[in-house]
Design brief:
Layout (H helix, E strand, L loop, with lengths): L2 E5 L2 E4 L4 E8 L5 E9 L6 E7 L4 E3 L7 E6 L4 E6 L8 E9 L3 E3 L3 E6 L1
Length: 115
């Protein structure tokens, strides 16, 4: 059974940093992308960042160079380093895996940025 477990969320002041982790386990075949999305208050869930199986990275425009996604294949863990956080970044952050046929989602981790 595929499982994704996010961690690293918490409360931080504006301008601060957090590193989110997503540990994956289980029989994941043909994983094309490891991704992060978020759900902020009053908005629909939105894409944040992804990294392909070949290491190509993609970011949402609002990241503005503040976030970095990395993948440690030896640890089966994907990270999202978030710097210069803003109150608008407050929300639940989800990691998910996309394959050619399906996707797997974690339960999310709360990030709260105070002004």
């Amino acid at each position: 059974q595929v499982q994704l477990a996010e961690s690293g969320g918490g409360l931080v002041q504006a301008g601060g940093s957090l590193r989110l982790s997503c540990a994956t386990s289980g029989p994941i075949l043909d994983a094309n992308f490891m991704n992060w999305s978020r759900q902020t208050p009053g908005k629909q869930r939105e894409f944040v960042a992804s990294i392909s199986s070949t290491g190509a990275v993609y970011y949402a425009d609002f990241v503005k160079g503040r976030f970095t996604i990395t993948n440690d294949k030896a640890k089966n863990t994907v990270y999202l380093q978030m710097n210069n956080l803003e109150p608008e970044d407050t929300g639940v952050y989800y990691c998910y895996i996309t394959t050619s046929t399906t996707s797997y989602w974690g339960q999310g981790t709360q990030v709260t940025v105070s002004s």
